[in-house]
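WARN retry 2 of 3 for item q-0093 after timeout on previous attempt; input resubmitted unchanged.
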Amino acid sequence: MRGSIPTCFFQAFFVFATFLSVSLPGMAQSSATPAIKMVIPFPAGGSADSFGRIVGQALAQQLDQPVVVDNKPGADGAIGAEAVINSPANGLTIFLATNSAIVAVPTLRLKSPYDPRTAFSPIGMVGQSAFFLFVHPSVPGSTLQDFLAYAKGNPGKLNYATAGATSILASAQMLQIAGLTMTQVPYKGEALAVPDLVSGRVQVMLGSTTSLLSLVKEGKLKVLAVVGDQRSALAPDVPTLHESGIRGVSVVPWSAVFAPAGTPSPVVDRLSKALTSALRNPDTVRQLGAQGISAEVMTPAALSTFVAKQYEVWSRLVIDVKLERQ
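OK item q-0093 returned
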């Protein structure tokens, strides 16, 4: 019949109408749930961004709430830190921070832009990063003891790369404890230092980039030790500095989650419980482990104490190793 509407049209319309009746309430509920902005003070695509997104996704699942990454790189994390400090303390802005922003910036600058002990509401620890001692194959020996013997016998001959505040301070502390004299070559990031380390322009570097371990397997680098209290699951055969005789290197990379100071306790508790659940999820632990992060659960109170102690350690160490503040 001319002008009639085909039956298939009504069938398609019915399916579409049914879809809307089911989906729209859920869609409206989802759009009504405000997203949490997680500030990461490093560029997209870097190691901190990678494990930060793992944490953000895990938090979103636990909270049943969107978590959106906001990369604010620059100034060793100070730009991201100040963005969080100046945000409303309502739980909708959190900070995936490393020790660079929390303790390096306040202790290595002549005029500290903020006090980490009062500028943030601690949520919880994420974990420590593996920090390996890499050397170029041209350096004689295969153990840390061999390296120490060579370095002591050839003062000033070796160059060591630093890439950021943590490696600067950890390297200075290691050299002081071991009684070594080497020449520092600063870089703006580990990725920029790696080509010179592989080529032999610099011969030594404390690094957390896990991809460097593949260069060890290829024979382009050697790994002699790992900083910290425990061996890394990424390289379980590599001893710690402590095991190898260098005791007291206390500067290690770590990361944690914070909110702006003054965030209400119920909001802090909710975020902290979600983070704890996320870090106890085997899949999250596995993903972080692949990034070189050893997941560690810590309450807000414990993290507050930890930050205060780290601030004291870094402040004292800057003076002890005579680092020039900028």
